[in-house]
Amino acid sequence: MHLKLAGGISLAALLLSLLALSLFHSAVAEDPYRFFNWNVTYGDIFPLGVRQRGILINGQFPGPDIHSVTNDNLIINVFNSLDEPFLLSWNGIQQRRNSFEDGVFGTTCPIAPGKNFTYILQVKDQIGSFYYFPSLAFHKAGGGFGGIRILSRPRIPVPFPDPDGDYTVLIGDWYKSNHTTLRAHLDNGKKLPFPDGILINGRGPNGASFNVEQGKTYRLRISNVGLEHSLNFRIQNHKMKLVEVEGTHTVQTTYSSLDVHVGQSYSVLVTADQPARDYYIVVSTRFSYKVLTTSGVLRYSNSAGPVSGPPPGGPTIQIDWSLNQARSIRTNLTASGPRPNPQGSYHYGLINTSRTIVLASSAGQVHGKQRYAMNSVSYVAPDTPLKLADYFKISGVFRPGSISDRPSGGGIYLDTSVLQTDYRTFVEIVFQNNENIVQSYHLDGYSFFVVGMDGGLWTAASRNQYNLHDAVSRCTTQVYPMSWTAIYVALDNVGMWNLRSEFWARQYLGQQLYMRVYTTSTSIRDEFPVPKNAILCGRASGRHTRPL
């Protein structure tokens, strides 16, 4: 069987090109390759008891997990058997020097129906728990998501013993309506209704179970892959020890319940130290006008009986409780990350920032339709991915600096917002939330230090309360209602990177931008050229990728 990649390139030819590249880059030669062939289809699913058209990967909902080790090369051939263009993106995978593979429309041309594309990713200098998801056309509301885990290399110490089991736990709010119905709702300028339920690993109430043996310890990798709501996660009569957040080993604090905001990922250790029976796993919405709750089961292998008693209650609208928990999540400074040196050896608090960017969200009507914005700009996608326009020097697609560093206070307007930044600078970004909802923001291509969060308006004096010692480094952060969150980020990854709301309707209707991390250098030490098998669309059609 001869697999063809996008552009008619055979898999054999691709492997030969990778082998040739390895002659020039010795690191690649010693890093393993993992191959995945995925077929994306529609299929009937019944997570909340009614038939829906879900998006399946190799017939699975959710999709298959990706298991990898630091520095692995992941070769993922995605065949699109849907009836509309499709892309997968990789939440938290940094795509070092290679934003072409990021899988959002600002960087990557969609895979046409009946066609395929092979992503070539390297999980360079990363560990931890992440997930992938479909980035276009509100597909995320139909499925197509799955877990990603990156294990440490064998010689790198991990700050806890190997668990006896390792589970992916994908939680999220869910609608009974198909994604096409929800998308049409948004396209018609309306807001989405309240969700119908919550899923755990694609299943409704009491549908998901996790098997444990008494006395053993298990790692749960919890990701909120939903569309809107912050969720609280808890297990009846069991404590959870937090050990990792989006690629950072944390101070090992024990919690009875954990707030997981939309787009975020956490690893906890749970020891099966209770009498042998079944226990509720409960997930419920936070900060919502009505509380949605679902449950799964933690099942002991020698269980003496089913779940009993009321499911454990959790916090509902308490913001201070969540804020205090967020501040307690800190980096383990003495633990190794993906490399043997301690995570605390990078002293971010001693580096002077060269620029402060304040981003404020807003909601409103444009031409009679609902839109969302950052610094008054509601993002509209051009006909050509920004990264390809930048690489091929195609004018008229975007303007660097088309969004300001500070809120203007003006009304919402439509534009293709690109924030111009410079490679190898160290910047401060403040997310100002003047709305009555919890927001959640994600930055592709990076991890950043969450140095502060508090209520009210951010001012320069707010820096006095920053954590400049052991702030957690992650890629998705929440911003509480009428509050701010500040991050520090070292711009060491050249490319075009999506900064977006993880509230998916808001992202779809404009609450996102792209950050152009720019250098005049053309060295592959700073950025890889466009992939040979890249799909070229829009005004990039007919251009030529690099020779093998």
UniProtKB/TrEMBL annotation:
Keywords: Glycoprotein, Signal
Keyword Signal among record annotations: yes
Domain Plastocyanin-like: 40-153, 166-303, 383-520
Molecular function terms from GO: copper ion binding; oxidoreductase activity
Coiled-coil ranges (or none): none
UniProt family annotation: Belongs to the multicopper oxidase family.
PANTHER family membership: MULTI-COPPER OXIDASE, OS04G0561900 PROTEIN
Annotated protein name in UniProt: L-ascorbate oxidase-like protein
Organism (species): Phaseolus vulgaris (Kidney bean)
Lineage: Eukaryota, Viridiplantae, Streptophyta, Embryophyta, Tracheophyta
